[in-house]
Design a protein that fits this description.
This protein is an alpha/beta fold. It is built from 13 helices and ten strands. The longest helix is centred in the middle third of the chain and has 14 residues.
């Protein structure tokens, strides 16, 4: 059984790589992006290489491909998984795109998967999940200073309310109730403490009441929507003619940005940069959901460069 060991911040992680991360909508990605031998591939959120390994197995063009991730742990694993000739960038995808544009790089396939990886969720040290008790961290890039603990313990009640409404899509009344309880319960140090606060002020629902609160905080910590919004208009410039762009989103805020971008980029007649392939987003089939429940909210949209 393959193990991957890496020392991070005095902690040795011993991870079973077979259990690391199941790439969502893999067959749908391959069917719609249609990789061919020799094509150049750019992965904006390579993670643990689930999509990349299958696409590069087809293209076999490692030297002209580029894998990006701002999570250092993921990049360390990618170094062990792929040949040295694959270009790896340990940075956010907006900064990487600017760098690639400056170098004049173009690609035949671009893929972005905006989901949080399984290791980020499963490692309690990362503080992404309320299912495991860990520090309030939620940083995708451990080099940045802003953490979930800072948001939770230093934002005002009004600021927290606005965060939960805007990024968690919570109802205003409930968002304000949770924000007030958080302020009254400070200091809050762990994911379990925060989840318990949300739970005692929430009604029963099919999903855990803390889901939207954790989503909202994570988005703010990592500037996720701002990064997506800045990056999307630049992507056609990185695509060769007839190049394919695939984007996987996991909640309505992300998907709305992608949908609006595709609509705008394809609505200028002969001068349109893109041609939409997926009129409606593609979702996971029941067979995939049976083995990978985290795919339940994934949506794939694909467009082609004119």
């Amino acid at each position: 059984m393959l193990k991957f060991l890496v020392d991070r911040s005095q902690t040795l992680y011993n991870i079973d790589m077979k259990e690391l991360h199941n790439p969502v909508l893999l067959s749908e990605v391959l069917a719609n992006l249609e990789p061919h031998p020799g094509e150049k591939y750019l992965d904006l959120t390579a993670g643990y290489g689930g999509h990349a390994s299958k696409i590069l197995d087809v293209t076999q063009n490692y030297k002209d491909s580029c894998l990006i991730d701002r999570d250092e742990f993921a990049v360390e694993y990618l170094k062990s998984k792929f040949p040295l000739e694959v270009r790896l960038l340990n940075t956010d995808f907006y900064s990487a795109v600017l760098q690639l544009l400056e170098c004049g790089k173009t690609f035949d396939i671009i893929l972005a998967d905006f989901g949080v990886s399984s290791p980020q969720l499963d490692m309690e040290e990362r503080g992404f999940s309320f299912k495991n008790d860990g520090p309030l961290d939620m940083r995708m890039d451990k080099r940045q200073t802003k953490t979930a603990e800072q948001i939770v313990n230093h934002c005002s009640e009004r600021e927290l309310t606005e965060i939960f409404i805007k990024y968690g899509e919570e109802k205003p009344g409930h968002a304000k109730l949770i924000a007030r309880e958080i302020v009254h319960s400070r200091p809050i140090k762990t994911t379990k403490e925060l989840a318990d606060i949300v739970l005692r002020k929430s009604r029963y629902s099919k999903i855990h009441p803390a889901t939207k609160i954790f989503q909202a905080i994570r988005i703010v910590v990592n500037d996720e929507l701002e990064e997506i919004e800045k990056t999307l208009p630049l992507l056609p410039k990185l695509l060769n003619k007839n190049g394919r762009l695939g984007i996987i989103s996991f909640h309505s805020l992300e998907d709305r940005l992608v949908k609006d971008f595709f609509k705008d980029a394809s609505s200028h007649g002969e001068e349109s940069e893109l041609r939409i392939i997926t009129k409606k987003p593609i979702s996971a089939k029941n067979t995939e959901l049976g083995i990978n429940p985290r795919a339940r909210s994934a949506k794939l949209r694909v467009a082609v460069r004119n």
